[in-house]
């Protein structure tokens, strides 16, 4: 059976479909999960799968957050995996506790990846100020997530940037906050072209907080992979900071200690004696 | 002519980079959805950027001013240094914090300062910044203030109402070190300030009689920092000092900062490469003390000079010294012993304990838990696996050493 989903991180879509399939006893091995995008070009779209919001299925309470996060992953195999777990849980309630089971392990791997993507979004979104019509200030950010995580992370930004209007636009949908409500749209957005003068101050800070005597480039790159650099205002400085580091340390050593202290030091010293 | 804001930001962030901490964790959970203001702290702090030194940049870490009337030999801001000086007004610090926060560059502010005029004068300005952020601007992000050790108790108390975390640097591991390199600072005063702060934190954590609510006071506790490698203190001395700080003042963290060459360094100190590996091993040992119930003497017993082994991590070093306690049967051993297996972290141990209720674990299962089999196999027994006397091998240590670097001709 071919099952086609919009597949843009909407958990309810998968859940209702999975309930329907489970109610009919469809074996995971008999399902071919597809996304609308993947079948878009086909002449004869497949018949919609049975959906059932009413059919109740009981699952251990750990399954829900795991499945919600799984469904946001970009790997198409996520739907099959989530359904297989659901299927197996019907006869083995303890399945999720067996962390070394291949399905469970895979689900956790995808889950980690979705969480990591969310963390990176919290960390690397950069708002730029835009002219605002009213009293509230307005900001826009462009971000490129790996997975369909935009909607599930809206709450974080709403709770944090409550007193300003903002939009986060991404190729996997956008969220907008206006002080009243958060709206989500799952259509791909275009990258806006905006400048913000504060970025320059931020770059000044970034360049100066770095200690050239402690250069550890690999460490930086595992935490801030290159794929994020293009949307980070500070990242343009990285190459020159790395190249200049050794030179700066050498200069410090060569300059050694100077013999004269500043005038106010002498004054302080004389005050004490 | 007065320097521009940008020029002063350059000077005052440069001066702050020798502080190891940039953490924004451990505080109470809060957000702005009810207040309609700005800022939140949810669980662990976020690293918004990483500098090429691999350090997480989470807070706007700046000095209010780098003018200082003290003359601490290891410090770039000491009065005898020829470094360029600058100063922010409290309003400027508030502005920078808010504007940086709105653009999601930072989690909040970590403010320290050189001492100008006097301890109280300086501390008062810092408190004013924190107060304005909270009360005037409805800011709920993270605030860490480095308190001035000699400031009066009244100011520290007020700081604690607005800050998430306060810190007082112990500076060097021994009193003699502090007296030699920071002649105007007094170890006894530093300890007294730490003790008073702990007492206030304890007091605030008791629910009051009338309201049954706990007072909000420095929810992320106090931390401290010591400089490593400027004086001659051994690792055993350093870790002993840390253990004392954790136990006596309930420090959340002791930060170790490898002494780093600074521009216009004092002649009293060596111009060396910062001992980064040593700093790393100290953090690992500190971690074993806090989360793996190792005693400090166990960690440092192996070597007569009291230094940690730089080639292997302290947990592995301990295991190699205590081979009689291995192999550990992962299907039977208790939690405490599992935690002592080199290569097992706290998460792994929890997963093992959970999973073995349902099945006997083999090496495959460990591999799926993302454990490096190569690293642990000599130390454990599992279903279908007994280490073939690996543990007795004389060359066991060398098996864990990093590959020797091949030299090539240019
Ligand atoms: S008091 Fe602080 S800022 Fe002043 S010289 Fe000593 S360590 Fe540096």
From TrEMBL, chain A:
InterPro entries: DNA_repair_put (IPR023875), DUF4130 (IPR025404). Residues 78-234 form the DUF4130 domain. This is DUF4130 domain-containing protein. It comes from Asticcacaulis benevestitus DSM 16100 = ATCC BAA-896. The lineage of its organism: Bacteria, Pseudomonadati, Pseudomonadota, Alphaproteobacteria, Caulobacterales.
UniProtKB/TrEMBL annotation, chain B:
CDD domains: Radical_SAM. Its cofactor is [4Fe-4S] cluster. One of its GO terms (molecular function) is iron-sulfur cluster binding. SUPFAM superfamilies: Radical SAM enzymes, RuvA domain 2-like. InterPro entries: Aldolase_TIM, DNA_rSAM_put, Endo/Exo/Phosphatase_dom_1, rSAM, rSAM_sf, RuvA_2-like. Pfam families: Radical_SAM. Keywords: Iron, Iron-sulfur, Metal-binding, S-adenosyl-L-methionine. Residues 63-200 form the Radical SAM core domain. NCBIfam families: rSAM_link_UDG. PANTHER family: ENDONUCLEASE/EXONUCLEASE/PHOSPHATASE FAMILY DOMAIN-CONTAINING PROTEIN 1 (PTHR21180), TYPE II SECRETION SYSTEM PROTEIN K (PTHR21180:SF9). This is Biotin synthase. It comes from Asticcacaulis benevestitus DSM 16100 = ATCC BAA-896.
């Amino acid at each position: 059976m071919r099952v086609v989903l919009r597949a843009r991180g909407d958990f309810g879509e998968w859940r209702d479909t999975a309930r329907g399939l489970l109610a009919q006893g469809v074996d995971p091995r008999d399902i071919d999960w597809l996304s609308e995008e993947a079948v878009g070009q086909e002449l004869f779209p497949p018949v919609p799968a049975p959906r059932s919001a009413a059919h109740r299925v009981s699952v251990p309470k750990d399954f829900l957050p795991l499945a919600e996060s799984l469904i946001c992953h970009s790997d198409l195999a996520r739907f099959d995996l989530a359904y297989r777990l659901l299927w197996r849980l019907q006869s083995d309630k303890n399945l999720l506790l067996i962390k070394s089971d291949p399905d469970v392990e895979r689900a956790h791997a995808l889950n980690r990846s979705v969480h990591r993507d969310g963390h990176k979004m919290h960390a690397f979104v950069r708002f730029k100020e835009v002219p605002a019509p009213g009293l509230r200030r307005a900001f826009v950010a462009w971000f490129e997530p790996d997975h369909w995580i935009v909607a599930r992370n809206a709450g974080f930004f709403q709770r944090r940037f409550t007193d300003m209007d903002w939009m986060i636009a991404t190729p996997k949908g956008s969220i907008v906050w206006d002080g009243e409500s958060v709206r989500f749209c799952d259509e791909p957005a275009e990258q806006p072209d905006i400048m913000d003068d504060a970025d320059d101050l931020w770059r000044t800070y970034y360049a100066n907080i770095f200690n050239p005597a402690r250069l550890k480039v690999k460490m930086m790159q595992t935490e801030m992979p290159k794929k994020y650099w293009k949307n980070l205002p500070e990242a343009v400085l990285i190459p020159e900071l790395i190249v200049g580091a050794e030179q700066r340390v050498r200069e410090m050593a060569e300059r050694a200690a100077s013999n004269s202290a500043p005038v106010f030091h002498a004054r302080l010293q004389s005050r004490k004696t | 002519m007065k320097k521009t804001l940008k020029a002063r930001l350059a000077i005052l962030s440069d001066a702050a980079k020798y502080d190891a901490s940039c953490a924004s964790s451990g505080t109470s959970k809060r957000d702005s959805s009810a207040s309609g203001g700005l800022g939140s702290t949810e669980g662990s702090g976020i690293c918004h950027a990483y500098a090429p030194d691999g350090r997480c940049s989470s807070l706007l870490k700046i000095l209010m001013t780098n003018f200082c009337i003290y003359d601490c030999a290891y410090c770039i801001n000491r009065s005898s240094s020829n470094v360029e000086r600058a100063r922010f007004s409290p309003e400027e610090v508030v502005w920078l914090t808010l504007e940086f926060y709105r653009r999601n560059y930072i989690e909040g502010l970590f403010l320290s300062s050189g001492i100008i005029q006097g301890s109280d004068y300086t501390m008062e300005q810092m408190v004013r910044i924190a107060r304005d952020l909270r009360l005037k601007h409805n800011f709920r992000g993270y605030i860490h203030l480095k308190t001035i050790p000699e400031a009066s108790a009244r100011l520290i108390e007020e700081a604690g109402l607005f800050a998430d975390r306060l810190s007082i640097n112990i500076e060097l591991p021994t009193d003699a070190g502090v007296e030699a390199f920071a002649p105007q600072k007094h170890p006894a005063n530093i300890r007294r300030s730490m003790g008073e702060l702990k007492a206030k934190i304890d007091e605030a954590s008791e629910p009051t009689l009338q309201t049954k609510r706990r007072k909000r006071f420095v929810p992320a506790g106090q931390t401290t920092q010591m400089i490593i490698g400027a004086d001659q203190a051994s690792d055993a001395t350093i870790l002993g000092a840390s253990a004392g700080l954790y136990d006596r003042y309930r420090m959340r963290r002791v930060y170790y900062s490898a002494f780093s060459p600074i521009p216009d360094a004092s002649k009293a100190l060596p111009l060396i490469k910062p001992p980064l590996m040593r700093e790393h091993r100290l953090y690992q040992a500190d971690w074993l003390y806090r989360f793996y119930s190792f005693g400090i003497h166990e960690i440092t017993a192996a070597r007569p000079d009291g230094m940690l082994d730089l080639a292997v991590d302290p947990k592995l070093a301990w295991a190699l010294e205590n081979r009689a306690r291995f192999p550990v049967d992962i299907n039977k051993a208790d939690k405490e012993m599992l935690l002592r297996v080199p290569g097992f972290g706290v998460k792994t141990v929890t997963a093992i304990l959970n999973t073995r209720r349902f099945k006997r674990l083999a090496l495959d299962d460990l591999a799926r838990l993302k454990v490096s089999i190569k690293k642990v196999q000599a130390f454990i027994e599992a279903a279908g696996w007994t280490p073939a006397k690996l543990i007795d091998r004389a060359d066991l240590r060398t098996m864990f050493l990093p590959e020797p670097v091949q030299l090539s001709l240019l």
